Amino acid sequence: SLYITHFKKILKVFIIIFAIIGFVLVTGYFAVRFGFTNTRGIIDTQTENFIKKPTKHQSGYEVFPLAHTPEWVAFRQAVAKDLPVVTKVSKETGVPARLLVAILVPEQMRLFYSDRPVFKRFFEPLKILGSQSQFSFGIFGIKDDTALAVENHLINKTSPFYLGKQFENALAFSSSTDITNERFARITDEYNHLYGYRYAALYVLQLESQWGKAGYPINSRPEIIATLWNLGFEKSKPKKNPSSGGAVLTINDTKYSFGEIARLFYYSDEMIELFPVQ
């Protein structure tokens, strides 16, 4: 009958739509899994910005090149709202609040400058941090594999990233039956960024643990820590005289590396009243 014919056509359309959705999701999974979504990186020793002597204020702080831009004004106001949360996580873990923000800076600047319509429509007028939602999630752009690795390193006593018994329950879940959804909800919470900062802080501690055990401490190297955050655990190979770098950020026709932006902020006087250098 005519109704059956129409029903079959509608059913066929739905099957095609779901097939396309399934293809996109599977493609996205394998793209993340095998690193196809990673952007080409650079080493700072190869860049003109890094070779040039940094400009400094009379007080000794480096000049932050993005200061006074609309993107930076929006970021300053947005991250200032997170001061209580950042302070809480810093006290919990011992990771300096300014170091956590230094890692957040290139993540947010990359988002602000790469998606101009969204920045103009939402981030700038509302003064909120951008939350990624495609292959990486939350304000720090944490991938699912990264979150799992941070969690596993907390309990794997044989791992060079292991931090000790005092941190084993730092990311304990409220339920053992729906961990995947709980993890996702934690990292992507748009109103409370506690777990974004907590995962980032534990990641930093795990890097510092690995490099410290190998005899190459990086505790005072924000540019190296930010670079390793950007590159991932698998690229963290302790050695003498590591170089900063990472993904390329093109900002106002100037190319910076991920680690370079973190370093420039960390040693500047931007937000020094909220997040002092320790």
- Give the strand line-up of the largest sheet: 1-4-5
* Series of secondary-structure elements, N-terminal to C-terminal: HEHHHHHEEHHHHEEH
Which bin fits the share of residues in helices? 40-55%
> Helix segment count?
11
Beta-strand percent range: 5-15%
> What is the terminal separation in angstroms?
77 Å
Q: State the secondary-structure class.
A: mainly alpha
User: What is the overall silhouette?
Assistant: globular
- Low-confidence stretches are 21-39
Topology:
Blueprint: H1 2-33, E1 41-43, H2 48-51, H3 70-80, H4 83-93, H5 97-114, H6 116-126, E2 132-133, E3 137-138, H7 144-155, H8 179-188, H9 194-213, H10 222-231, E4 245-251, E5 254-257, H11 258-266
Antiparallel strand pairs: 1-4, 2-3, 4-5
Helix pairs in contact: 3-5, 3-6, 4-9, 5-6, 5-11, 7-9, 10-11
